[in-house]
Write a structure and sequence with these properties.
Chain lengths: ~130, ~800
């Protein structure tokens, strides 16, 4: 059985590490990218089933990347994952499926990922 | 014959004697009568101008007649003698058609007459005649005799008359000089006329002297006259007749005998027989006329006689002096009035200037209105009794009464005016003086109240509207000048005549001023209106200036308040930004720390010490995340996640968090929870955070050992508040907060603590407020602080 692939885009190394550990443990195959540019390189190669996207990144920020990504790919679900509370209201406008406020407790994130994947039909509903 | 020759010799001799003319003629008359054996002899002397024959010498006639009787020109036999230069004999003088009867002379008893002209080579100087009581035919020798006598007399008469004339002239001249002097020194016309008439009486012997003066239109109007003659009305026909004619013709009119029908009506009213009127002309303009009637005979008899040429000349001189003096007087009066007017104008202009300057300097509208009105009412400057000022309100479309200045009663007015008699000071003191209301207003001004109660439409028919629409001052003198709308104005202000000055600038109508003279009832003159008009323009501009300044100043204030508001918002938003920035910066590390700590917990068996360490880390990270969350929420005002909560549980949770800390700090801690409290709709995270902040504050307060003797007690209490609210009460014994610090503790940037975010209390307050609750502080200096958070209970589900 192939694992569902998740691309984690975040500029913080420790966050990437933590997410990789946690999500791997949860049974996903995890790839990480450190900024928009890196993500652009990794996406066509890794072909993720879902992307978690940080907003505040050096260079191109998450929103801009999302917009561009959506121009090419409308199907792959994206979860905005950020420290900011601001955008909570507008996430749907930006073309993402969910908006998660970062916390050290990743349970909420994991639950959201599961939900989104089920909705997208990428994993069978439990 | 020889007798007659003797007489002639004697006459010659007599002639040479330096006798006065009267004495001389008396002698001659006596001698002549004797020589001809006649009962009477009369010598009449012609005056220099050939105007009258005066009865100068006599034998046998009444002595009162001498010098008193004058025969008017061409009247009587004597004149015939003089005119024809031929002797005359008459058997009965009274039969002669030329006979001029003067009964007072006593001639009625004489019958025949022989007369001859007194003349010599140089001309005729008079006539003399002898008269007999019995009829007598005179012989040619007698006629010749008389002729010769007359001839000889001529020289003597001429010489003596000359001397006499000189004397009279000298006397006249000095009298006229005196008159001229008097007139120069007198500035009052009545005195001038008095002097003129006295002089005329003295020099001409006139019985009556009446003087008329022309008014401005040239009509002789006023008269100066002795009371015996009668008043101006009575003399009207005289004035309208002979006086007007004399003035018109610019020539003297002399009526020797009014009985001869000279053609002028009313002369009998001056009770005269002879009247002379001399017009007074100065620089070709008629000044008036002097009328003299009947000279007074020296002996005071009732005889009247015409004026001699000399006397008429004297009259002309007097008239000329008088005309000049009167005109000078009038010019002087005019000059004085003009100077007075100029002085007054100059003073008023000075006040206007000072007031204008004052008006430019004044900043507040109230002061300006006061200055404007006080200038208008002040003493001798503009001096109206009362003044009221109205400002125009374009929004309401009405004039609103703003300020009224003036006494409330006549008595008060009197008191104020006598105090303000002295002119207002100049320079810098003027402003102060003008602003000092007590100078022209009573203590409790009903007038001011009445003014302020008035509201008049700007578009109506009332006086204020009319004046401002027409942009001119109006002088309302009485009911006739008012309209129906004015009746309210009149009633409230209590005046029935007033003036209105509109205050208009390019920008439009600023207002209007009403002034009146209620107490001294002085009518408002054109001059007053003039001043008012000149004054209202700068007043209007000053008001507009002040309003602009006021608006500017208000805008300025608004601007600076906006600025400070903006600054505050910016601070707060900066705070928000910082928070967001900070939050982001902090969050990520927190996620890392907490995340890995959690994994440690996962992997390390719980009884191990490392596990407990990891647990602590997780706990603290949780707390930090909570702080961040509520900080961000609070500074953005987001309501967060509200759920029905039980405050007691909340309080207990928070209390438990600090249990260990209390013990370690030696603080006696108490938890007192009231049961049965309603639930509250709150974001537990935020409220918890608030409580945690307060506890931290309490702990810090008790930690510093300001009051070492006081027991450290900390208490959390919950209680019902009112019908459906809940209170959480947190108190400590940390010694309280100083007055100064009390003001600051709610300041977001203030902190007395080394640790802590410093955002503490202000955000706590905000959180509570957002929950529609209240937070109060009870600070007891020296004891401690108690915070009370009251939250509204949620309606039961």
């Amino acid at each position: 059985m192939t694992k569902t692939r998740i691309l984690v885009v975040d500029d913080e190394e420790n966050i990437r590490l933590l997410y990789r550990e946690e999500l791997s443990e949860a049974g996903y195959e995890v790839e990480t990218a450190k900024d928009a540019l890196d993500a652009d390189k990794k996406v066509p190669v890794f072909k993720p089933d879902l992307i978690t996207l940080d907003i505040k990144m050096p260079g191109m920020d998450g929103m801009e990347y999302l917009r561009r990504f959506r121009e090419k790919d409308k199907k792959t679900p994206v979860i905005l994952c950020t420290a900011y509370l601001d955008y909570k209201k507008d996430f749907q406008v930006w073309g993402s499926e969910a908006y998660v406020v970062k916390s050290f407790n990743l349970d909420h994130l994991k639950a959201t990922i599961k939900e989104v994947l089920e909705k997208a039909g990428k994993i069978p509903a439990a | 014959m020889a007798e007659e020759k003797d007489v002639i010799e004697e006459i010659s001799g007599v002639s040479l004697a330096q006798l006065s003319l009267d004495k001389l003629l008396e002698r001659i008359a006596g001698r002549a009568a004797e020589a001809l054996n006649a009962q009477a002899c009369a010598i009449l002397v012609l005056d220099e101008e050939g105007q009258t024959l005066s009865f100068r010498g006599s034998r046998g006639f009444n002595t009162e007649a001498i010098n008193a009787v004058r025969v008017p020109k061409d009247r009587g036999i004597s004149w015939r003698i003089v005119r024809d230069r031929r002797p005359v004999t008459l058997l009965r003088a009274s039969d002669d058609p030329d006979y001029y009867n003067v009964p007072e002379s006593g001639e009625d008893k004489f019958t025949s007459l022989l007369g001859a002209p007194i003349m010599d080579g140089a001309g005729c100087v008079g006539a003399m005649y002898v008269q007999t009581t019995q009829p007598r035919e005179f012989t040619p020798a007698e006629i010749e005799s008389v002729e010769m006598m007359a001839g000889k007399t001529a020289g003597a008469i001429r010489a003596a008359a000359h001397i006499e004339r000189l004397g009279i002239n000298v006397a006249n001249l000095s009298a006229l000089n005196e008159l001229a002097q008097l007139m120069r020194d007198t500035e009052e016309i009545p005195l001038i006329l008095e002097a003129a008439s006295r002089c005329a009486a003295n020099l001409t012997g006139a019985r009556n002297q009446i003087i008329w003066l022309c008014g401005e239109n040239g009509d002789p109007m006023r008269s100066h006259s002795p009371e015996s003659v009668g008043d101006a009305e009575y003399l009207a026909p005289v004035r309208l007749g002979i006086v007007m004619e004399a003035i018109r013709s610019r020539k003297m009119i002399n009526v020797d005998d009014i009985r001869s029908g000279a053609g002028f009506a009313g002369l009998e009213r001056v009770a005269a027989l002879s009247v002379a009127v001399q017009p007074m002309i100065y620089k070709d303009k008629p000044v008036g006329a002097i009328l003299l009637s009947d000279r007074i005979p020296a002996a005071g008899s009732a005889l009247c006689a015409p004026f001699t040429g000399g006397e008429l000349k004297t009259l002309a001189e007097i008239a000329s002096f008088t005309a000049q003096a009167v005109m000078h007087c009038r010019e002087h009066e005019l000059l004085e009035t003009t100077m007075e007017r100029s002085k007054r104008d100059a003073k008023e202009l000075a006040i206007l200037l000072q007031v204008s300057v004052a008006m430019q300097q004044t900043i507040t509208l109230d002061d300006l209105l006061l200055i404007i009105l006080s200038s208008v009412t002040v003493g001798s400057g503009l001096g109206f009794n009362r003044a009221a000022l109205f400002l125009a309100n374009k929004h309401s479309g009405h004039f609103h009464g703003m300020l009224g200045i003036g006494p409330d009663s006549g008595e008060e007015a009197g008191r104020i005016w006598s105090k303000a008699e002295s002119a207002p000071p100049s320079g810098d003191d003027l402003l102060k003086w003008l602003l000092d209301r007590s100078n022209y207003q009573g203590a409790n001004s009903r007038f001011n109240e009445a003014t302020r109660s008035i509201r008049m439409s700007m578009a109506g028919q009332n006086a204020l509207a009319r004046a401002s629409i027409a942009k001119t001052c109006l002088n309302i003198k009485g009911r006739r000048d008012m309209t129906a709308e004015d009746s309210e104005l009149v009633e409230r202000l209590g005046c029935d005549s007033f003036a209105v000055a509109p205050l208009v600038t390019r920008e439009g109508v600023q207002g209007a001023i009403i002034v009146d003279n209620k107490f001294n009832n002085r009518p408002i003159t054109d001059y007053d209106m003039d001043i008012l008009t000149r004054f209202s323009s700068p007043a209007a501009w000053a008001i507009e200036n002040v309003k602009l300044v006021g608006r500017l100043s208000a805008l300025n204030k608004e601007l600076s308040s906006l600025e400070s508001h903006l600054a505050q918002v910016e601070r707060m938003s900066a705070l928000g930004e910082i928070s967001a920035e900070l939050a982001h910066e902090i969050k990520n590390p927190l996620v890392t720390i907490g995340g890995f700590a959690r994994r440690l917990l996962w992997f390390i068996p719980s009884q191990r010490m490392e596990s407990r360490y990891a647990s602590r880390i997780v706990q603290e990270v949780e707390r930090l995340e909570g702080i961040l969350r509520s900080t961000l929420d609070a500074s953005k005002g987001i309501s967060g996640n509200r759920r029905l909560e039980d405050v007691n549980r909340l309080a207990r949770d928070v209390f438990d968090l600090f249990r260990r800390a209390f013990t370690e700090a030696g603080v006696e801690s108490r938890l007192a929870l009231e049961g049965g409290l309603p639930q509250v709709m709150i974001d537990s995270g935020q409220i918890k955070q608030t409580l945690i902040n307060l506890i931290h504050n309490a702990m810090d307060a008790m930690a510093c050992d300001k009051h070492p003797n006081i027991r450290k007690i900390f208490e959390i209490r919950t209680a019902r508040s009112g019908a459906d609210s809940v209170s959480i009460i947190i108190s400590d014994t940390g010694g309280g907060v100083t007055e100064r610090d009390l003001n600051d503790i709610f300041n977001p940037f203030f902190t007395t603590k080394q640790t802590g975010t410093g955002l503490g209390l202000s955000l706590c307050k905000k959180i509570v407020r957002l929950h529609k609750g209240t937070m109060t502080i009870d600070n007891r200096l020296g004891v401690g602080v108690t915070f009370t958070i009251t939250l509204p209970g949620a309606p039961p589900a």
